[in-house]
């Protein structure tokens, strides 16, 4: 029985029911701009009273025609694979488009259920992994020697060439907090035309218990001092819905950086890490601010004293203004006096007195 149908404006590349809104259908349609440039339309259709109506259209500019796509579990991120091997990641909430270049022709794409990574596959049997911030992750088959590569070449293990036609993660029906083997769903089904059929078990490392979640990916990046990639992943996370995971990741990144010698790069990375809470891409709920404000302010204070240790007075002063604590300005005052920075010492003392006066007025 056909309940309803609708004609799409452009040829659909993909159409599926929303997993979060069961009465909505998401499509990705091939479109072109007024300048005849390739685009992809991400459309939302609503099904009600046996009618399908288009509710919203988002036009995403591309460098070449899209040949594959998939959405993450939150349905906020859409990944598109294109004919020129470019990978486009569109984030709906922030309306941000990221671009990366794959090492293969992305005929197949599938997002991991955790939302931390996605897998790209070519019909020739090549696989490549990207994290959710579009940084490529090297992989290799389990072996004694550590020799990861950009892609995994499955076809070289076959005597007869075969075309890869499907890749799909094993998604749990219920999210499990179990740490044993049954609670880890990092299995990837790979199906070739006319066979064979296989399953790959992806492991990130012993320290992370092999799991491929956001926290585990970030800890692995920190382990190899790939801090830019770790912060990029943290930036994609939502404090309002995964506050505990965000806090664990921020703590790990900041603790690692505070152990290092302060350089301009490390300083910028510390700012960016704390900025995921103090200047987030999504406004924080009051409950989120109240829950994490105090523990994160302690990290901000540690950053402040780290700056003072390396005599980064100007940046320390600006951070003290953001924190708004009298004792920090007095710390600057005494250290500036000790270093002969009399003008700065005077300004810091005045700022401390202003905060004192303001707090007295507030009490009155």
From TrEMBL:
Keywords: Cell membrane, Cell projection, Cilium, Cilium biogenesis/degradation, Cytoplasm, Cytoskeleton, Membrane, Repeat, WD repeat. Belongs to the WD repeat fritz family. It is found in: Cell membrane; Cytoplasm, Cytoskeleton, Cilium axoneme. The lineage of its organism: Eukaryota, Metazoa, Chordata, Craniata, Vertebrata. This is WD repeat-containing and planar cell polarity effector protein fritz. InterPro entries: Frtz, WD40_repeat_dom_sf. Its main location: membrane. Pfam families: Frtz. One of its GO terms (biological process) is establishment of protein localization. GO terms for cellular component: axonemal basal plate; plasma membrane.
């Amino acid at each position: 029985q056909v309940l309803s149908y609708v004609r799409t404006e452009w040829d659909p590349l993909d159409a599926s029911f929303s997993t979060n809104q069961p009465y909505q259908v998401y499509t990705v349609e091939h479109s072109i701009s007024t300048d005849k440039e390739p685009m992809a339309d991400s459309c939302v259709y609503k099904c009600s009273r046996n009618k399908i109506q288009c509710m919203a259209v988002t036009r995403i500019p591309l460098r070449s025609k899209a040949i594959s796509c998939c959405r993450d579990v939150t349905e906020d991120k859409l990944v598109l694979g294109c004919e020129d091997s470019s990978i486009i990641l569109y984030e709906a909430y922030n309306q941000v488009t990221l671009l990366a270049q794959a090492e293969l022709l992305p005929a197949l794409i599938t997002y991991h259920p955790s939302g931390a990574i996605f897998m790209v596959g070519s019909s020739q049997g090549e696989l490549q992994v990207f994290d959710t911030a579009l940084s490529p992750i090297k992989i290799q088959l389990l072996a004694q020697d550590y020799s990861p590569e950009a892609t995994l070449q499955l076809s070289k293990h076959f005597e007869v060439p075969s075309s890869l036609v499907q890749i799909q993660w094993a998604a749990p029906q219920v999210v499990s907090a179990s740490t044993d083997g049954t609670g880890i769903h990092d299995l990837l089904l790979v199906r070739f035309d006319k066979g064979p059929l296989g399953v790959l078990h992806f492991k990130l490392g012993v320290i992370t218990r092999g799991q491929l979640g956001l926290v585990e990916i970030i800890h692995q990046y920190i382990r190899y001092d790939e801090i830019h990639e770790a912060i990029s992943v943290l930036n994609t996370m939502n404090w309002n819905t995964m506050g505990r995971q965000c806090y664990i990741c921020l703590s790990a990144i900041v603790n690692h950086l505070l152990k290092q010698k302060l350089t301009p790069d490390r300083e910028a990375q510390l700012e960016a890490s704390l900025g995921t809470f103090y200047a987030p891409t999504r406004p924080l709920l009051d409950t989120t601010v109240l829950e994490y404000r105090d523990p994160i302010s302690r990290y901000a204070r540690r950053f402040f004293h780290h700056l003072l240790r390396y005599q980064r007075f100007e940046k320390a002063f600006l951070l003290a203004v953001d924190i708004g604590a009298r004792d920090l300005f007095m710390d600057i005052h005494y250290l500036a006096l000790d270093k002969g920075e009399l003008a700065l010492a005077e300004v810091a003392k005045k700022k401390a007195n202003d905060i004192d006066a303001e707090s007295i007025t507030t009490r009155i």
